[in-house]
User: What shape does this take?
Amino acid sequence: MTIRDLLQSAQETLGTLEQPRLEAMLLLEHSLGRPRSWLIAHDDEAPDTRQQATFQQLLERRAQGEPLAYITGKREFWSLALEVNPDVLIPRPETELLVETALERIPVSESAQIADLGSGSGAITLAIASERPRATVIGVEFHPGALGVAQRNARRHNLDNVLFIHGPWLAPLHGRRFDVIVSNPPYVAEADPHLDALSYEPRSALAAGPDGLRDLRSIVADASAHLQPHGWLLLEHGADQGDAVRDLFAQSGFSDIETRRDLAGLERVTLGGRHG
Assistant: This one.
């Protein structure tokens, strides 16, 4: 089969997906080790039997529901190519709002201290570090497998203003204070039926108790002790959790509390300041 034939067949196999041709193209790129431009220019060529077999195996995995990012082992976030595997949550485009909002509060010319709690693949940590080279950005991650992925991603992008450390939330940061603390913690309720569609991703990075607020509560309650005067806490949360998270911030003495909406108009990031 030619590249054209393979893509046509694959598109039919992945027909239930939102973008079957694009995903077929990405899988074929990965299988052949060739960029899209080459595939288009050589669509009348026939890959060898081994290459076609590899492509069909990847195609079958995708058709069964395995995320594309886990199959190819990579995902782009904030224009950074990141390694991902089943030890980490796949970075979502909406999380870029958390990065954008944090950067508004980190001066380019100052040596700010930043912490990212629950770094996973390191996506948020590395995005901030790449935009604020004078800042020191510490990523905290509890799961060893995820910690290894984050460290490899930092090395891949030669970011020397990043440090990843092991531990739960703020616990390994005892005695340290930061100008900005960010986190995209688990925030899905344990019984939420949407979890079934995310079965390939680590449940510990998604679910957070009966109401999805367990980790958000913990972080908000402990964050003030780790913030500099006039420091900021920024948290990503579920679209229906804005009211609850704003209440948590208020109960813990934060001021200037606000919630930002993502491109879909959904409440996504809440922030508050520690003043005095």
About this structure: The longest helix spans residues 49-63. The chain has two domains: 3-65, 86-274. The radius of gyration is 21 Å. The beta strands are 74-77, 80-83, 113-117, 136-141, 162-166, 178-183, 227-236, 255-261, 267-274.
